[in-house]
# Entry
Amino acid sequence: MRRVHANTALFVDEQGKIMSYRTFSIISNVQWLIILFLVFSHLITFFLFSTVPTYSMYPSMNRGTWCIGTYDLSSLHRGDIVTFFPYAERSDSFMPIAVFLQVASGDELYIKRVMGLPGDTVAVKNGQLIINGTPLEEPYINGDYIYYDMDEITLTSDEYFMMGDNRNNSLDSHVLGPIPESHLCSKVLWYISPPVDWS
# Structure
């Protein structure tokens, strides 16, 4: 499939058989499709591609923001943005295809910011988030005042407290409660607004 017959528009395969340009083109395209499929299959083994479905992470992320996340959750820190299943554990196999199947079957995938780590004490008082008795400075949130209070709770060794940056319009741990580690899906590494917001 690498040679062109000297005086024709036909292609010659490795066995010396002449084939038409159309056949050559189909074979070439199939080869590229296989390569692209293998590359994509490799990528989704390590990364989760998703979009933000609501305005709960505004202004950091708008609705429709494109995200790439890693399945490596070994080093989560306060302030990291993660995806998780609020009402269900992630699949035991935790393979990328399992995540897509969970979402397709109706399990919602949320995206929020990690504010409370295992063992932390979390509360909301006088419009501020309090972690281990200390009010947090949060320049990334929408507005400078939280309109609700929340009694102090202490997270267990496998719980995280998730909050949206749009604090007053976010269904997060102040309603759902702490999120078990077994519900976490991915840590967001990179995100960008959709083209409609670029202006």
About this structure: Helices lie at 21-46, 96-104, 173-176. The CA atoms of residues 65 and 195 lie 9 Å apart. Residues 3-45 form one domain.
